Structures are given as structure tokens and as C-alpha cells.
UniProtKB/TrEMBL annotation:
Keywords: Membrane, Mitochondrion, Mitochondrion outer membrane, Repeat, Transmembrane, Transmembrane helix, Transport. It is a multi-pass membrane protein. The chain crosses the membrane at residues 170-192, 228-246. This is Mitochondrial carrier. It comes from Anopheles christyi. One of its GO terms (cellular component) is mitochondrial outer membrane. InterPro entries: MCP_dom_sf, MCP_transmembrane. Belongs to the mitochondrial carrier (TC 2.A.29) family.
Length: 324
């Protein structure tokens, strides 16, 4: 019996590191799969993003046609985003619908990798054993942002990875935006040259050279401030709404997840004008026809752009996919 117990103990000791390694491998593979799925979805939906970008820039090549609103009223309507994407395909072909995709994907990949690394350096993660909200003796009214985020994102039992809280997520998000923005500008300008039929931004390296020669380093960060402003407030307000709901109404994970999704959609819709401003400012200052009069005014800064778009009631263009 002693020998058998000793053998069983040795087998248990050997299986424990294997289980830990398997869990570690699963934790590393799952985010990679999610990121790969996100890239595939971004690629598949890119023609719609292309059409939306041109609409945000104010380019309407198809005249309005008689149509009906959602409530049945007759009025002139611009083509929906699918008809707009079909028009781009009729002009540039199927591959033309993916102009600027390479820069967009490269920016997403680089920012996804380095933003996480930078956030770990700037805000070290904390050990997060079992979430305190799973403890029935814990007072939910004393919970913090980190408790709510940990509770919503965990699966069964303890959280799968160490979390650094809201601060580290915010730092990672901001770093990701800053790192990806030069590629974001290149991608938008590749799409914007469809308006004037230019060929200044045909390739990734040629586009980088074009911006560097004529605008310098500042050209790579055109439109960064309104993009940061929108994303920061979107993340802050969404987290605050979810936190307050979980704290004062209930902390059910499923319900909190739905509340988080609804809050994110609502806040994004409210802050959408800053997305339009960021897109316009990314093109302003370039040699493209899309960024110069008469297609686009010269703006002093992004606040001036936002004020003029709001004055002309153009600050929400591109927000509707169907009834325009």
C-alpha cells in the first residue's frame, strides 16, 4: 500500500505541471484565435468600411432617388451603403473594394501586439485569484471598477488570467490607437484617392514616403486627437454605465454583458461625429482632391472641423447604413 500511494503521489506531481502547461497554452491560443477571427471579419466587411469612409468625407457620386423612409414617407434618398459599395466595385472591380486593407491590417496586428506589451510595462498586472463578487459575504456596494470587470470577464470559477484593472486596459487601448494611427491615416488616404482618381497612395511604402516628404512626422498623426477623444470617452462611459448597473441593480454576468454591449453601442452613436472629424482631418493637408477645396474646406484644427460640420449638419454623415 505504501508503495502504491507513493507511485500515485509521483504521478500526481508529474501531471500537475502538465495541466498547468495545458492551461497556459489554452490561455495563449484563445486570444490569438479571437484576434484572427476579428481580422477575418474586418477583411470580409472592408468594402462597407470603404464606402462608409467615402461617405464621411462627403463624397456622393450617385444622385438621390425617390424612395420611402422607414415610416413610409416619400422623399429623395441617397444610395445605401451596399449600393455605394456596389458602385465602387463597378468602377475599380472586386479587388478595388479592398484598397487600403493592407495598411489597416498591418496597423491592427502591430498595435495589438505592442499595446499589450506596453501596458504590462506601464501598469503591471495584479494577481487576481477568485473574484470577490463570487463571495456571498462580500458587500456588492463596496465593489470597484476592477471587481466588476473581473466578474464580467471571468468564465467558470477563478479568472483565467491576471488582470491589471481598468487602468491597464485604458493604457493598452490608448497605446493601440497611437501605434496604429499612422497606418490608419495611410489606409484612409488610399481610399480617399478614389474621389480624385489619383495614384499617390497606391502602395504602403509609397504612401509612407508621400506623407513623410510633404507633411513630415505630423502627417502620420493627422486626426489622432478626435479619435483618441472619442475612444477614451466611449470606453470610460461604457465602463461607468456597466459598473453602476452591476453595483446598484445586480451583478449577474450575463445581464452585465448585455448592458455593456448596449451601453457601448449607445455611447458610440452619441460620439459618432468625432469619428467623422477624425476621418476628415486624416485627409486634410494632403495633396489629394478629397482634402482640398471645393471637396473639403481647409480647417484650422479638429475643433474647427467639428464646428463647421455641425453647422452644416454634416457631422453624422455615414452613421446610417440604409435610410440616407
Amino acid at each position: 500500500m505504501m508503495i502504491r500511494d507513493r507511485v500515485n503521489a509521483m504521478q500526481a506531481d508529474q501531471s500537475y505541471p502538465l495541466e498547468e502547461n495545458n492551461k497556459r497554452d489554452e490561455d495563449e491560443i484563445e486570444p490569438a484565435l479571437r484576434f484572427g477571427y476579428r481580422l477575418v471579419c474586418s477583411t470580409a466587411l472592408y468594402p462597407l468600411e470603404y464606402a462608409k469612409t467615402l461617405i464621411q468625407l462627403g463624397y456622393e457620386p450617385i444622385a438621390p432617388r425617390p424612395g420611402r423612409t422607414l415610416f413610409g414617407a416619400k422623399r429623395l434618398m441617397l444610395p445605401n451603403i451596399f449600393q455605394y459599395a456596389a458602385y465602387i466595385k463597378s468602377v475599380d472591380g472586386f479587388t478595388g473594394c479592398f484598397r487600403g486593407l493592407s495598411a489597416r491590417l498591418l496597423g491592427n496586428i502591430i498595435s495589438s501586439y505592442y499595446s499589450e506589451k506596453l501596458s504590462l510595462v506601464l501598469v503591471p498586472p495584479t494577481n487576481s485569484g477568485t473574484c470577490r463578487l463570487n463571495n456571498p459575504d462580500f458587500d456588492r456596494m463596496q465593489s470597484t471598477f476592477d471587481d466588476m470587470e473581473e466578474y464580467i470577464n471571468q468564465e467558470n470559477g477563478p479568472t483565467k488570467k491576471q488582470r491589471g484593472g481598468i487602468a491597464r486596459q485604458a493604457v493598452a487601448h490608448v497605446c493601440g490607437i497611437i501605434i496604429s494611427h499612422p497606418f490608419h491615416v495611410v489606409s484612409i488616404r488610399m481610399m480617399a484617392q478614389f474621389i480624385g482618381r489619383e495614384h499617390m497612395y497606391d502602395g504602403l511604402f509609397g504612401s509612407i514616403k508621400e506623407i513623410w516628404v510633404h507633411e513630415g512626422i505630423a502627417g502620420f498623426f493627422s486626426g489622432l486627437i478626435p479619435r483618441l477623444w472619442m475612444d477614451f470617452w466611449c470606453m470610460a462611459l461604457t465602463s461607468a454605465i456597466t459598473y453602476l448597473f452591476a453595483k446598484y441593480v445586480g451583478a449577474n454576468k450575463t445581464v452585465c454583458g448585455h448592458v455593456n454591449t448596449i451601453a457601448h453601442f449607445s455611447v458610440t452613436s452619441m460620439l459618432y461625429p468625432y469619428h467623422v472629424v477624425s476621418t476628415c482631418m486624416a485627409v486634410t493637408g494632403s495633396r489629394l482632391k478629397a482634402g482640398n477645396p471645393p471637396m473639403m474646406d481647409h480647417y484650422i484644427n479638429w475643433r474647427d472641423c467639428h464646428a463647421r460640420l455641425r453647422l452644416d449638419r454634416q457631422h453624422k454623415r455615414g452613421s446610417s447604413f440604409f435610410f440616407r
